[in-house]
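Fold these two proteins, one after the other.
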Amino acid sequence: MVDNRITRARMRHHFTYNAWKYALLVALAVFGWDLIYNMTAYRPPANKKLDIYILAPSADVERMSADLNAELRAAFPDQEAFNFLAIALGSGDQEDPYAQMQFSTYVSAHEGDVFLMPWSRFRQYGGAEGGLFLPLDEFVASGTLELAGIDTSAGRLPSPDGGSALYGVPAATQKGLEQYRVDSSDMLWSVAAYSRNQENAVRLVSWLMKRFDESVSKSK
């Protein structure tokens, strides 16, 4: 007669040789739940969110997001999310190849609505040759983009029609960026030409420029 009694010794023997199976089962359950959650989690549509990419090696975007999100939600009540992301891609020739690959991947996937980047990068990716950024002249003319006397000459690049257009707005006067470890002296704001939330992205640029100007005067 077969002895099928469950004893302490048999349990100890079973778990000694089969513990990895239970560990694997738990790991698969956690992975499966995480996968299902990520696949079904709500994501705002493209016209209800704005992604801001800061191309500066030391930018503290976590603090920037924490400081600004409540204000942004009040200023843009029709928007559901504001995402700040730093890419360690500066203006020098010696760059982290991962940062370059990261930026290229995001752009290829048409991610990012607003960019803040050094002039050398702006010149590389903007204008008729680069094609990454949206011409802003019509938004200036309509009052959507408020320049408040900013010298925009550095933001003009050759356009496809053979003339020039405003593709970026210099951030040199926005010294409030320094509290987030961003040196604004050689940086420009731009809007991605592929953005599916262009008008709000331009309005956001106008808001950010004013906000980082005001943060300096408030601190004095």
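Now the second one:
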Amino acid sequence: MGATGYIFSITTNTTNLSTLKKTYRYVNKPVVLHSIVAEVILLIPRVVCGFLLAKDFGASKFGMPWTPAEKNLGLFEVGYWFPADVAEYGGIFAMFPIFFAWMAAFSEAVGGVFLLIGFNTRLSSFLITVTMLVAIFAQQWNNGLWNMLAAMGFLWVAMYCLVFGSGKFGLDNLLDKKLKRSV
């Protein structure tokens, strides 16, 4: 009975790993277009937005290795001013300002890096989409359309990447090919 239980345990773990790989492939498999021009058109906004989110927007609120020294932020630390800014949105944001500030800053900084390199593109695009919707409707809505443009641009690119994934030129595509051979 001990050996049978051991074999069943190995089979269950292998089955769980196989299911996990299939789920990962299902979620992260990018739409690969059959035109190199279309792939480059998908690549450019993903890379530009990922870079800008990670370098400028995220790093100003969230401690990353490239965060400017004058921000005085440790690694993965949220700027002291940001939770108070988030609390001003009211409702659930006022109840958990530190959590939402950390999530927003994380989605911009780390999600921007993931978008840039095309890794877990759909997940990071989802987080960026939610963050940009909050930025548009909770933060910038009363400040006019001009102040919403940056968040709206990031929102549209994130929604595009949410549907198409990283495309051919992203880590998701390389991982998908590798997982396809192992499943």
